[in-house]
Write a structure and sequence with these properties.
Helix content is about 30%, strand content about 25%. The longest helix is centred in the middle third of the chain and has 14 residues, at about 70-85. Strand 6 and strand 7 (about 120) form a beta hairpin. The chain has helices at about 20-30, 70-85, 130-140, 145-155; strands spanning about 5-15, 35-40, 45-50, 60-70, 100-105, 110-115, 120, 160-165, 170. With about 170 residues, the protein is of the alpha+beta class. The two termini are about 20 Å apart. It is globular, with a radius of gyration of 15 Å. The strands form 2 sheets. Strands 1, 2, 3, 4, 5, 8 and 9 form a 7-stranded antiparallel beta sheet that branches.
């Protein structure tokens, strides 16, 4: 099932409500139960300062690498479904507290820009809280984009991205 059709996708996970580490573990379990998706690597979990709206609890963030035999739009559908099942309410407000946030960062070598999905993630290069765990998990995968991500990260302040636990096996 994961032979020639599967592509490597990178997924950002974040939470700052209701036991954030537990929320990330729950989302990863739900992801692993979706046919056509296999979680291959999970970064360490990191405590990070909130982005945008600073008047909220710190986040816990991580990145997961997936082997994905689904189309990008189908993967997005599953991600949004997991968010809803975990109590995430998406509305027009941005940078608010949340039980779970699942962002598709990369999907193979694809470049997509639709009303629903942009890949690579359009704000990736601005967010150390995503790049730190992404560089960690990509290093384990020897991903060809790793050097570019490391260069971008070296230009961003990231002292407030604090490792909570070591790299976890999928």
């Amino acid at each position: 099932m994961f032979a020639a059709k599967a592509e490597c996708a990178y997924l950002g996970l974040g939470s700052n409500l209701d036991g954030p580490e537990d929320q990330l573990h729950c989302a990863l379990r739900l992801l692993g139960g979706i046919p056509g998706i296999r979680v291959t690597h999970i970064s360490s979990f990191y405590r990070t300062a909130p982005w945008g709206n600073l008047d909220q609890p710190d986040f816990v963030n991580a990145v997961a690498a997936l082997d994905c035999a689904l189309a990008p739009g189908d993967l997005l559908h599953h991600l949004l479904s997991i968010e809803r099942s975990m109590g995430r309410i998406r509305d027009a407000s941005r940078w608010t507290p949340r039980t779970i946030d699942l962002d598709l960062l990369y999907f193979g070598n694809r470049r997509l820009h639709t009303d629903q999905l942009s890949v690579p993630h359009p704000y990736l290069e601005e967010r150390a809280f995503v790049l730190v765990p992404l560089v960690e998990v990509a290093a384990n995968l020897a991903d060809p984009g790793l050097l570019a991500w490391q260069r971008i990260l070296s230009k961003l302040p990231h002292d407030d991205v604090v490792r909570l636990q070591p790299l976890v096996s999928a």
